[in-house]
Each structure stands twice: as structure tokens, then as C-alpha cells.
Design a protein that fits this description.
This protein is mostly beta strands. It contains no helices and 13 strands. Strands 1, 2, 3, 4, 5, 6, 7, 8, 9, 10, 11, 12 and 13 form a 13-stranded antiparallel β-sheet that branches. The protein is globular, with a radius of gyration of 15 Å. The two termini are 23 Å apart.
């Protein structure tokens, strides 16, 4: 996954958008492309392109030094070749996490960790599909339509960390096609420390 991303650090897919730059706010902020995510069905589950950005309202629970409560942005800041692949550098919305390189082909997203590429988001994106990055296991769950601050996103899926087996530690990210990650949730083994983040604004190139 995209470590408290950025997985989008989110963690994200290159083929997602071939249009001109768009910027929209969630909720009361007007959208520059004049609409909702109704055209997102043909886009990737996690779009990455240079200068794309995702701004979140972040709430830290308990003690989690990597993140700060408030508004914070994850952004694609560089494009180049890393580990033999076409890749994009994505900064995390958690200041203490830093930046990570991601490469994508369609919905398949890989992350460059310790000089190796590992799977961040696997295909097919469908209910019950599972994968591992070598140390953790993940599963896709269909989330349907997601409403955030009066903004509606369609064709959404949630990634859950299947490693914890229902324990207190929990990591989940909701992705919507053509939008990327719209919600983040993390708790550590105590169940008390972590963060929640909700999308408030996004720029796509």
C-alpha cells in the first residue's frame, strides 16, 4: 500500500487521465470541470500523473507522530525512471512518512521499496480479490457509491489489510475510479493510535 500516503503513496494508475488539467473541491467548493465523478468509470482506480495532488482533512487519533491533524496534501512531484521502470514520486499527506516511487500499468500499481518493486494495488479490482506485497496481505471490497461532504463518487473499492485477522490494528483505503484514494483509516495494534483522512480537494492533469 502507499504508506499513510501518499499509496497512495496512496500508491496510483498512469493511464487514468488523458485530459486537460482539472481541479475540484469536495463539498461546497465548486468544481472546475463542472460535475461529479460520473465519467470516472473509464478511468483507473488510482490515477497518477505529474503534478496530480490530493488534499485531505486529517484527524490524528491518540499518538501518531508521522501525521498531523489538519489539512494536508499528497502530490506527484517527479517523473522519471526508477528500478528500470517508468515511475512517479508521490509525497505523503503525513509529513513524517516522506515520499515513495510508484509505477502503474492500468489498475496494477507497484511501489519501489528497498531497491525492489512490490505490488501496492493488484488486479483485478473486484470484490474478494487478494494479494500480498511480501510482508502484508490485502483484499479488495466493493464500496459502490461513496458520498463525502455532498460530493458523490462512483465505482469505489476499499482496500483492507487482511494481515491483522480482525485484530485492533487496521488499515483501509477507499479508492474511486478516476479519483484515487478518497478515505484513509489506520489504527495500530492498540486500536487507539493512528489517523483518518477524508478527501477535500484533488487536482488531475
Amino acid at each position: 500500500m502507499r504508506h499513510e500516503c501518499a499509496l497512495f503513496c496512496l500508491v496510483l494508475s498512469i493511464a487514468a487521465v488523458g485530459c486537460s488539467s482539472q481541479s475540484f473541491g469536495v463539498g461546497s467548493v465548486a468544481t472546475s470541470d463542472g460535475g461529479d465523478s460520473s465519467d470516472a468509470g473509464l478511468a483507473s482506480i488510482d490515477p497518477i500523473a505529474l503534478n496530480n495532488s490530493w488534499t485531505y482533512a486529517v484527524t490524528v487519533a491518540g499518538t501518531y507522530p508521522s501525521c498531523t491533524t489538519g489539512t494536508s496534501t499528497s502530490a506527484v512531484t517527479q517523473h522519471g525512471t526508477t528500478g528500470g521502470r517508468d515511475a512517479y514520486l508521490v509525497t505523503s499527506f503525513c509529513p513524517g512518512v516522506g515520499s515513495f516511487w510508484f509505477s502503474a500499468v492500468g489498475d496494477l500499481v507497484s511501489e519501489y521499496i528497498d531497491a525492489s518493486w512490490v505490488t501496492a494495488l493488484a488486479t483485478p479490482v473486484q470484490e474478494g480479490s487478494t494479494w500480498t506485497n511480501g510482508t502484508e496481505s490485502f483484499i479488495w471490497h466493493s464500496a459502490g457509491t461513496v458520498n463525502i461532504n455532498n460530493q458523490t463518487f462512483t465505482d469505489c473499492y476499499e482496500v483492507d489489510d487482511a494481515t491483522t485477522g480482525g485484530g485492533a490494528a487496521y488499515y483501509a483505503v477507499t479508492f474511486c475510479r478516476g479519483v484515487g484514494p478518497v478515505k484513509w483509516h489506520l489504527r495500530d495494534a492498540s486500536g487507539s493510535n493512528g489517523y483518518d483522512a477524508v478527501l477535500t480537494q484533488k487536482t488531475i492533469n
